[in-house]
């Protein structure tokens, strides 16, 4: 399902959803938002790559000088160095000499460091764009025969003993290969069975592969860059390759969302910038640049695709638009997607170059959930604040690499600030001091209670087991005044609260609820102030989505909703349903695979619900649970189900 927005329009049209995967939020572990203090600094250019061998972290890029601390003297060391990850001390023995930038690093088999980039010599010896080094001394491993004779190496990925090579080359090891090749990682020898060529550069530019990743099971490679064909098959900027077969072959998967040009095609020749598989291999993430052009194309967007999908015209499971700002790197680790670039906001499809309705402030670095693509509550900001020394750079265009090392999430950039501290061109967010995100969801119990607003500050509690309703008990709930649509999540309720002086006259509030008193409310998030929840005539939450209806509108809508931060998705979707007039719905709850809902006629009904199906609801199969009575009329938006 693609997010839908109109250029730089203020409002987004509803997206129409079809049968699809609905990822459920899962437990995740976030790195600390406070960068480690011990990492060294680099100057000029940018950091593009990391690798780790033993206790040493290796750093590659286009920088020209390095130093230990903010007050240390700069020392000349171009393109590649190493430091001790526990002390931060720069290695005095690993000092290789390269004549060009390092773009990518891999810790190779047998205690080697494999380096790819745009260099011609290493330690004074000809080694074009690809070399294996001794990680202790920086000496060339002479027995390793890999060479990129015909051009720059942009990316390397290692799986088992296969080394996948991507770049702007036409020859590898003296053999014709356009943009992609596979080597024996131990020896550097070419694999003759791997013949996958990327051809047809966009905008009259020469073709190249910019970014690759291999699924954890080693069976699928995703490649992105400036090409229109893989082995002659139309694959504009991105494609999948079956690399688990004896003879690797391009898979029957393609998307048209990287075909149209973005804002400036001569500048943004290609706009697929970074690709990364999820930890279970079931999906992959793509980050892009390009400026305006969305939603026709996935310009300046983070998207999720499903690995097992096949066929042409593939659409993303979700799309997170930045609002005209670049994403240059992505990493997936510990149940979290990290992204870097020069973006200023996420969840921002409704504006260009400013914060539109729904925009969440994220300056150049962010973490989002794989289930919805919405940001989580993690916001270090790519800023040095007042801590930057003289002569440093406050802001830059790129975060070329985010990489999960053994002790944290490493970042490389072309500026010098992160988390309001000085971190010259590189740094690391340690896992120590991070936190666990435990997903919250709708109640899964099959017995419990339906709660129905009967008057302002008053609620009826009715026992419910899916078919039988008990006698109502009406109790005062003074904290639940001005309440509209309400949805239960874990130990709390979210609800539409009429609050004078707010931008829309209502806001989404939260109250803790244990089955007795509804707690004092607080605002879910100031980032949701653009939204008017009072317009909802019923709502429920399930698996990262807020489903809702509106009076007078015969559709079942949803938006993504991230509990960690309480951020509401900026794009509205319509779920395909049939046989039910949603315009008359008043109050909804999710119960054991069903929507339980009231209506303007006061009747309570139940209907099966499957958000992955098309239609998700067949209203012809709805059953009546209770008719309106003088005691109780099921016609209030304020309704929810709880086990307590």
Total helices: the number is 0
Low-confidence stretches: 1-19
Query: Which radius of gyration do the C-alpha atoms yield?
Result: 27 Å
Spatial shape: elongated
The number of distinct β-strands equals 59
Characterize the biggest β-sheet: 6 strands, mixed
Report mean pLDDT, rounded to a whole number: 95
Beta percentage is 35-45%
Structural class: mainly beta
Q: What is the helix content?
A: under 10%
Terminal-residue CA separation? 35 Å
Short descriptors:
4-stranded antiparallel beta sheet, 59 strands, 6-stranded mixed beta sheet, mainly beta, 0% helix, single chain, 644 residues
Structure explained in plain terms:
- By secondary structure, the protein is mainly beta.
- Residues 1-19 have low confidence and may be disordered.
List the helices and strands and how they pair.
Blueprint: E1 15-16, E2 28-30, E3 41-43, E4 47-53, E5 56-61, E6 65-67, E7 75-76, E8 80-84, E9 102-108, E10 112-117, E11 121-122, E12 125-126, E13 130-133, E14 152-159, E15 162-168, E16 171-172, E17 175-176, E18 180-184, E19 198-199, E20 208-214, E21 220-226, E22 229-230, E23 233-234, E24 238-242, E25 249-250, E26 272-277, E27 283-288, E28 301-306, E29 318-321, E30 327-333, E31 336-341, E32 345-346, E33 360-361, E34 365-368, E35 401-404, E36 408-412, E37 417-418, E38 421-422, E39 426-430, E40 435-437, E41 448-455, E42 458-464, E43 473-476, E44 483-489, E45 492-498, E46 506-512, E47 522-523, E48 536-542, E49 545-550, E50 553-562, E51 567-568, E52 573-575, E53 577-578, E54 585-591, E55 594-599, E56 604-608, E57 617-618, E58 623-626, E59 639-642
Parallel strand pairs: 1-52, 53-57
Antiparallel strand pairs: 2-40, 3-6, 4-5, 5-8, 6-7, 9-10, 10-13, 11-12, 14-15, 15-18, 16-17, 19-22, 20-21, 21-24, 22-23, 24-25, 26-27, 27-28, 28-29, 30-31, 31-34, 32-33, 35-36, 36-39, 37-38, 41-42, 41-59, 42-43, 44-45, 45-46, 46-47, 48-49, 49-50, 50-51, 50-52, 54-55, 55-56, 56-58
